[in-house]
Design goal:
Strand content: 25-35%
Oligomer: single chain
Number of strands: 15
CATH superfamily of the largest domain: D-amino Acid Aminotransferase, subunit A, domain 2
Number of domains: 2
Shape: globular
Number of helices: 8
Bound molecules: pyridoxal-5'-phosphate
CATH architecture of the largest domain: Alpha-Beta Barrel
Order of helices and strands: EEHEEHHEEHEHEEEEHEHEEEH
Largest sheet: 9 strands, mixed
């Protein structure tokens, strides 16, 4: 089936949709994005994703776009038109089309807004069943990782390094401390049961799933420490997992070839995954 996508106010067949070669997203990586999960044909946590989109736009002085009600409508309309049951909606907002220049164009330049759907097994994900093998890689990204920009080349390189090493993904390390995954937030569970994840700063993306999982973990009485941890501490942990919109909570079963716990997805990760999926199914819209 040909997908229907959204470009600047129009719903188009994917092979009819175009963006200018002068678009600053294409030329300068001058664009921000969001990914919302879709479960049972409904969208998960759009308020969180839309709020972060606004924060990214503000940080980059990007011109206004649709309001949240309009954005939700476009998301829902794409899900409906594509009869999507499970997967994601990707949104990208660039600063628009202008002559190539490092300086931003004037605020009269309209932004480019593109959305599309992608089918994906979210709940019944094979990786979540078996658990992910990760390797560590140096974190060579820029210093504003709290802004969700499309500058994803280094995370792609880290992911390819993981593949080349026979692993699934990479956890990034800076100054001897884990920042986050290539496209996820990183958590460990210590041998005495404390849940540890790096504190919020410009060093990491402020994951929407991270926030929800921390809230759920608090609700069930887990002790939480928001602090940085080393790869060595992670290798000694009872469990580890990563969070993102479409991987939800995915257990990590080895780090740099060292198995965690009994080498299978851990109980805390499994419980938080279940709680998060249940809550998402209840609240999706
Ligand atoms: N960290 C990075 C670098 C990411 O790219 C992502 C998601 O794409 C996340 C964390 C998780 O964010 P969220 O839970 O909002 O999907």
């Amino acid at each position: 089936m040909t997908r229907t996508v959204y470009v600047n106010g129009e719903y188009l067949a994917e092979d009819q949709a175009t963006v200018s070669i002068f678009d600053r997203g294409f030329l300068m990586g001058d664009a921000v994005y969001e990914v919302c999960a879709v479960l049972e044909g409904r969208l998960v946590d759009t308020p969180g994703h839309f709020a972060r989109l606004r924060r990214s736009m503000t940080a980059l002085s990007m011109p206004e776009t649709l309001d949240n009600d309009e954005l939700l409508h476009v998301h829902q309309e794409l899900v409906r038109r594509n009869a999507l049951r499970e997967g994601l909606v990707y949104l990208q907002l660039s600063r628009g089309v202008a002559d190539r220049d490092f300086a931003y164009p004037g605020s009269e330049t309209p932004p480019t807004l593109v959305l599309f759907t992608q089918a994906k097994a979210v709940i019944d994900s094979p990786l979540a069943h078996r658990g992910a093998h990760v390797i560590t890689q140096p974190d060579l990204r820029w210093g504003r990782r709290d802004i969700k920009t499309v500058q994803l080349l280094y995370p792609s390189m880290a992911k390819m390094a993981a593949r080349a090493a026979g692993a699934d993904d990479a956890w990034l390390v800076e100054n001897g401390l884990v920042t986050e995954g290539s496209s996820s937030n990183a958590f460990i569970v210590t041998r005495d049961g404390r849940l540890v994840t790096r504190e919020l700063s410009s060093d990491i993306l402020h994951g929407i799933t991270r926030a929800a999982v921390l809230r759920l973990a608090r609700d069930v009485g887990l002790v939480i420490e928001e602090r940085a941890f080393t790869p060595e501490e992670a290798c000694m942990a009872q469990e580890a997992f990563m969070t993102s919109a479409t991987s939800m909570v995915t257990a990590v079963v080895s780090i740099d070839g060292q198995a965690l716990g009994d080498g299978r997805p851990g109980a805390v990760a499994a419980r938080l995954r279940t709680l998060y999926i249940e809550e998402s199914l209840r609240q999706a819209e």
